[in-house]
Amino acid sequence: MATAANAGVPTLIGSVQRALRLLEAVGAHVDGAPAKQLAREAGLPLPTAYHLLRTLTHEGYLRRENGVFVFGEAAERLADGGALQNRRTRISRSLAEWRDAIGVPVYFAVYREGEIEIAGVADTPSAPAVEEWADFRETGHAHAIGQCLLSQLDEKAREDHLDRHPVRAVTPYSVRDRRTLLDRLAATERMQPVVERQEYALGTVCAAIPITAGSGAATMAISLPLHQQERLIPAIEQLRGEVGRLLSSLAFSISI
C-alpha cells in the first residue's frame, strides 16, 4: 500500500535500468567493447553485467564478435524506427511552417508500392484541407497530387497504375478518359506545377510540385477555394521556393 512518502513516485524496475545503462555503454564504442569494460562503465558488478549481456544478446539487441559486444539487429531496428519518427516530425513541422507562411493548406504525398499515399497534411479551421470524399488512391487521375506523382513514373509503372485504378469522371470537370490523361501527363513540363480546377472537388483548385529528393516520386501541394484561385500560382511558387531551400539544407527526406 502506498504511503505519503512514496505517493506519486513511479515504480522503477532496476533490471531494466541496468540493461539500458549497458546499452548506452555499448553505444559509446563504435567497434564494441568487452564485458569487463562495459560493466565498469555502466557501474555494474561483473556477474550482473554478464547476465544482462547474455540476455540482451539472446533477444537480439546485442551480438558478440571477437570478444566484444556490439548492437544487434533488434537495436538497429529501434534506431531505424527512431530515425523514421524524427523524419516524420521534421516533415510535419515543415508543413505547418509553410501553411502559416503561405496561408493555405499544404500536403505532402509519395508514391509507394504502387499506390498514392498522403503522408502529411497541415491545415487550419479557417483554411481546411480538401475532404477525401473519394479515395485519393483510386482517383489520382483527378487531383493535382495524383497527376503530379503519375507524371514522375515511367511508362510501365504509369500504365500499371491506370490498369488498377481506371480513369473515370469524378466531377463534371475531371479528365474523362485514359488517352486524354496520358496526353496531359506527357505534356507536363519537368519540375513545373501541376494545376487542376474542380477536377476532384467542386469549388476547389489545387496545384502540386514534384519533389526530386531521393529516387522515389513525391509531391508537395496546396489547395484553395475557387473564388481565391488567383492566389494559386503565386502560392505554389512560394512553396516551391521554400521547399528548394529546405532540400538544399538536407533537412528534409521523402523516405518515410
Report what the structure shows.
The chain is an alpha+beta fold. Helix content is 43%, strand content 17%. It has 8 helices and 7 strands. The strands form 2 sheets. Strands 4-3-7-6-5 form a 5-stranded antiparallel beta sheet. Helix 1 crosses helix 2, helix 1 packs across helix 3 and helix 2 crosses helix 3. It is elongated and about 75 Å long.
In short:
Pfam families: HTH_IclR, IclR_C. By secondary structure, the protein is an alpha+beta fold.
Question: Secondary structure elements and their pairing?
Answer:
Blueprint: H1 14-27, H2 35-42, H3 46-58, E1 62-65, E2 68-71, H4 73-102, E3 106-112, E4 115-122, H5 144-152, H6 155-164, H7 178-187, E5 194-197, E6 204-211, E7 217-225, H8 232-248
Antiparallel strand pairs: 1-2, 3-4, 3-7, 5-6, 6-7
Helix pairs in contact: 1-2, 1-3, 2-3
